[in-house]
Known about the structure:
- The protein has helices at about 5-15, 15-40, 45-55, 60-70.
- The protein is built from four helices and no strands.
- The chain starts with a helix and ends with a helix.
Amino acid sequence: xxxxxxxxxxxxxxxxxxxxxxxxxxxxxxxxxxxxxxxxxxxxxxxxxxxxxxxxxxxxxxxxxxxxxxx
Length: 71
């Protein structure tokens, strides 16, 4: 599913989005920063690959499902 910038910002600012960011920071802070750095440099595929491994936990999957249902 593709999201535009405004949708992503709304998702990130939601309660579930904040919980997901906190979870990602706890589980893989350095990896999250690496993904952000890659995305900032235009390497979206590299960022996506890093994030996909972080999002494989049951907690992350549940939060992602909630976010998708809200959008």
